[in-house]
Amino acid sequence: MKNPLAKKLKPIKEVQTIRGVQLPIGLEFRQLVITGPPGAGKTYYINQIRGWPNEGYIDLSRKGWWRDQTLIYRPREINLGIPYRGRKEVLTVFDQEWRESPPESLQIDYQRIRIPPQSHSLLRTNWRDRYIFEFIIPEPEVVYERRRSRQKEGYFPVDANLTLAEVSRQIQTYCDIALYLHRAGVHVYIRHDISEPPMLISEKGDVSLPPWAVADAKPRPNLKTLTGWRQLLLGQSPIPWFSVTDEIQELTGPSRIPHDGKSLDILIGAFHLRLSPEIPMGASKGYLRFNRNWIVKKPGSCSEVNIRGFARICPGDTVIIGRSNKDYDDLFSFTREVAKRQLSVSNLKGDLLVKPLSDQQRISVVRIEDLDSREQMDASRVMAMRQVRSLLGGKIADLDRTSALSLILEVNEILATESYRPLDGYDLPGGLVELPDEPTPVIVGDLHAQTDNLLKILTENCLFQALKRNNAILCILGDAVHSENIDEMERMDGSILIMDLIFSLKRRFPANVFYLRGNHDDFNPELSKNGIAQGLLLKMELERQRGHAYVEAMQTFYHRLPYMIVSPSFIATHAGPPRAGTTREQIIQIRLNRQTGEELTKNRLKRPHYLSGYGKADIKALRQAFQASKSTPIIVGHTPLDPFGSVWQNVGGIKNHHIICSSHQNGPACFTRINGKIVPLTYSAEPLTKLINKLKHRP
Q: Which domain holds residue 542?
């Protein structure tokens, strides 16, 4: 049974010893909530640290569980009630119903799990920061032997008829819950045993550290001083403010830089990084008040030959800048003069707390451009927005009936002789796209009718200009249609508009835009979401708006689509590799291999409740089929792991196996190649359809 936390844990380096137990340095003792499966050692741990002696219980699906009286007294041992699909009542892992149910029938209903709200107001409780959950998760064999021993004492009914398989399932359940809460922004850390140090969950792409895991991240206020009271009531830090000017100033100690909407440059010897406040176009003042993110990038703008990498520091995040931060090193290629841990940067409600960590190289700060990010928006992006608009005839809107039919017929002709696709036995382009390595790939996951997300990707980072110059290739992994937002599932206007845009891109850049078939690229009446037959609804709406000829042309488009993209840099498909293995020739001959096509569009990663899914061996077999190295990323869509993110890396404990979803309402994500590495980029949401249509036309 696969451990979802495998290869995702790293020791917390900054610890304090409290009553013989190592705890994170910034943790307040009464924040601590202890949980874990039966036999993990929770009661012994609570007694060791002299916590509240009686165990409690919380129902994770109950609204406001964070206000429960059970959590008033802390540290405390807590058992978790977990919601499952098809069951009205929650279950604990020691309930008899849970123990007697087949594993495949116990699928956690993550949508019913309530997450504590976060607040930055003085008048409202920040429930998200009130608790830190410690999950004690030993190895299954350790728990099994421990529970067998205590069962001999005769007063532990939960240990009756115990098996190692049951213990393993219980531990996996707590691992799944810990990972989900972590991704939701709840403070979580893991411990195998109280004699061992605590560990952070650190997925690939996670470069920030929680404040309670950083030394001196939250110094205690001195209530004998006015500064101390300001720190307590207003959250103001006693660390001195640093005024950034157009003169280079050395940073000699911890300093706080205010969020004034303007960029600053950090100089580490000859190496430069630029930090810019992220101010999305169209964002309200209310949004900006609580979303004061900073973008980290190298100075200079993108170009038609140079798509740039960047990172984001959100409120509450702490990042280490240095060569030991592999994700940052992949993005920015640190020179040797930058230390492994050069400095830390924390986002404190928008203000930056910058701390030198090494004296290997002088650190300086300067402001080169005295403009905010909206004022700095270069002409290249405005030009890209206008050019994208021109694709649809001067406005981001549905095409008229005649133009729409003409467009899709042109696209179908392109697909009939599409570039980079080896021919199948019918002398037609087969199911495989084999791309050269030279143009920079930009890989986009499921868009699900979110036109603004596609517009964001197209108009950022000089992508549109790069497509024009044949310096980039846009790869969309299918499922551009059918919104997954609850209030939009029955509406098809977004699906029609986004396909008009994709068809226009394909006509404009026939050898630089590729669209793979997904499971939603079908009119099958059985294709439904939440009981809504979206495939049939789209067909009916297209018939109503554009006629039978257009519906037939769309069906032809679906049938002519490829199923997989392979390049020296990556392998991509909509859902995942076939389970039974495959060959290059079978994918080319996809018309003769219907089962392979079904698996490429509908497969999912193997899980306890989905045993028919693909696994590590199938990923390995796919790489071998194309003689790809172990380090070649395999990128799929189709199965977002939670509602909080857009990119999940090394999924299932499989190295270089990534999932991407580009339809998130908070903004899209994509993969691209930076400095020879395939890396993810996430963008903020912008109402680009409205903004682009408001741009003045050139005289």
A: 401-686
